[in-house]
Amino acid sequence: MAGIDETTTGRGSGPGGRSGRTVDPADRAQLERAPVPLRRVTALFRPYRWQVATVVALIVSSSAVALATPFLVRLVIDEALPRQDVRLLAWAVAAMVAVTALTAVLGVAQTWLSTTVGQRVMHGLRTAVFTHLQRQSLGFFTRTRGGEVQSRLTHDIGGMQSVVTSTATSLAANATTVVGTVVAMVALSWRLSLLSLVVLPPAIALTRKVARMRRAVTAQRQRHLADLHGQVEEGLSVSGVLLGKTLGAGPAASRRFAETSQDLVGLEVRSQLAGRWRMATMSIVFAGIPALVYLFAGLPATSGGMTIGTLVAFTTLQGALFRPLMGLLDVGVSVTSSMALFSRVFEYLDLPVEVDDPADPVELDPASVRGEVRWEGVDFRYPDGARPALTGVDVTVPAGTTLALVGETGSGKSTMASLVARLADPVAGRVTIDGVDLRDLRLATLAQVVGVVSQETYLLHTTVRENLRHARPDATDAEIEAAARRAQVHEVVAALPDGYDTVVGARGHRFSGGEKQRLAIARTLLRDPRVLVLDEATSALDTATERAVQAALDEVRRGRTTITIAHRLSTVRHADRIAVLDAGRLVESGTHAELLARGGRYADLVAAGDRDEDLLAA
Fold first, then answer.
1. Which ranges of 189-249 would DSSP assign to H, the alpha helix?
2. How many CB atoms lie within 10 A of CB 404?
3. Can you say how many angstroms the Cα of residue 323 is from the centroid of all Cα atoms in its chain?
């Protein structure tokens, strides 16, 4: 995987650097859990089959051309130099230079083509995974760690490039080199070839054992590095620093960081020593085998009348055999690692889309929508929920009116509102706008009809202008400013040094909670939706600011259908209708005055609100 230290994967840059790799148990477990058919992997490269074939041809050609060098060396030593044949010497030297130049050019062409193919495949996968994940329901993201999504989208797909630029190309190159080298060695001297091949297995076993020792040490080091990175992320993020300062936990965090860093010192020393032992072992191997070859070449019983040029050519070939042979021995590990990456990415691509566009959508003009919203016998249960979130809900909101949803925490208010934006689909019943089931509308059409301002405001790390324009990319600066005025936030933005071009900061930390909420309201108003869902939209505002924003919202929602989840009596009392929820069921419905007169659940909530000034705590 690109960007990962070679000790993590067992790859090295020195001679035989790929030696000693073992299959990661996590990779094996991944493939057992989600096996990947080879034809699915090859299908990714089918559009580039001619480029891949060309890459293989370049690799084979480069390896074959490089084998000419030892024979040219023998020609120089045995023929040109003893005879003092300047012409032959010049031709042989020129051929050596030509071989080197040709292999270099072929290598550059192969690298360019294989990298291009790999990057294009990665681009297609990145785009496909990102698009597919965007279609997932919110439930998927609440069940999945955010870091895992980023890891699969970037690291795993980035590592998959090795299938073309590393695994596949090295397999072709190593196989060609090994076969060609062995044939050339046998052609030069079958006796010395037999000796080299007999000595290689124990030498390979020794180097693999030393490399496995290093892998064990470096695995510990990677775990400690992960802990160190986690402490950096948690301790030096905006939220982490704020938490540390407010709790006085900074010194303790520094001590934990120092302890982890100290442990890393010892592991780093052991890792480097293991690496040096591996290199020392490799040096012994590289020095020992040629020494034995020289010994046997000097013995009358085994030399077979070998010339000096043949001996030099043979040792040159023998020295070039070790690395590609080790690469072939490791091909199983490389394939397993690569297939595990494909498995992880395909797992995401194979996730079913719970909320998707219909096969035969109803065409609806957003401009002609009246805005009548209706829940008809709606049941809903979260996948991991112990009980239903909604049961048998029947509510109708006439076009242009306001519905307030009230109830205690967990009563189903936000769930009921989220179904209008089709963040999820009911398990029974249906939700309609103007009589059309939301599941029969394109998601893009529904997004134009329904606008949502949630209690959790999220601002992008860009300018205020671009944050607002995110809702409607074609909005003019005048329209952006008008939306900000209606949300009572224009004066705040205009007072900033760069006005609407001010960068809001990570998650909008430049602004207060109330200011962020008003920016979110302005962003939604910019889209001018026919149905407005306000999920605790004013929960972060002080009383004075809430009054100003509420006055703006009262003006904006004229002619619109508005569904409000709020916890303050001032917001609820003026709604055209109030729906009271309890444990996912609709228990009361009516106006503020009617519900108070009944003395039921709503009246109890109002009484509680009078006591603690928190009518509908969410």
1. 190-236, 238-247
2. 24
3. 34
Rounded Cα distance, 324 and 336, in Å: 19
| pTM to 2 decimal places | 0.67
User: According to the per-residue pLDDT averaged within each range, which of 155-164, 300-309, 561-570 is highest?
Assistant: 561-570
The CA-to-CA distance between both ends of the chain, in Å, stands at 45
Find out whether 600 and 407 touch, Cβ atoms under 8 Å.
Answer: no
CA quadruple 418, 424, 429, 433: dihedral, nearest 10: 60
**d(C-alpha 344, C-alpha 333), whole Å:** 17
CB 310 within 8 A of CB 2: no
Q: Any residues with CB less than 8 A from the CB of 475 and at least 6 apart, and which?
A: 468, 469, 483, 526
Helix (H) or strand (E) holding 100: helix 86-134
Digit-coded pLDDT (tens) for 364-385:
888 888 888 999 999 998 877 6
Dmax over CA atoms of the chain, in Å, equals 121
For every residue of 515-584, DSSP letters joined together read: HHHHHHHHHHHTT--SEEEEESTTTTS-HHHHHHHHHHHHHHTTTSEEEEE--SHHHHTT-SEEEEEETT
β-bridge pairing 561-565 and 390-397: unpaired
Please state whether beta strands 585-590 and 436-437 pair in parallel, antiparallel, or not at all (unpaired). Answer: unpaired
Task: Supply 486's token pair.
Answer: 């209606």
* Dist. CA 316–CA 542, nearest whole Å: 81
- Where residue 434 falls (left for φ over 0; alpha for ψ -120 to 50; beta otherwise) is left
H or E element that contains 141? helix 138-143
Residue 207, SS3?
helix
Reading the block at residue 472, the tokens are: 């409607």
pLDDT in tens, 17-54: 344 455 556 666 667 777 777 788 888 888 988 988 89
The answer to whether 511 and 530 are in contact (CB under 8 A) is no
> Buried b / exposed e across 13-47, counting CB within 10 Å, b at 16+?
eebbbbbbbeebeebeebbeeeebeeeebeebbee
Exposure b/e, 97-121, CB count within 10 A at least 16 = b: eebeeebeebeeebeebbeebbebb
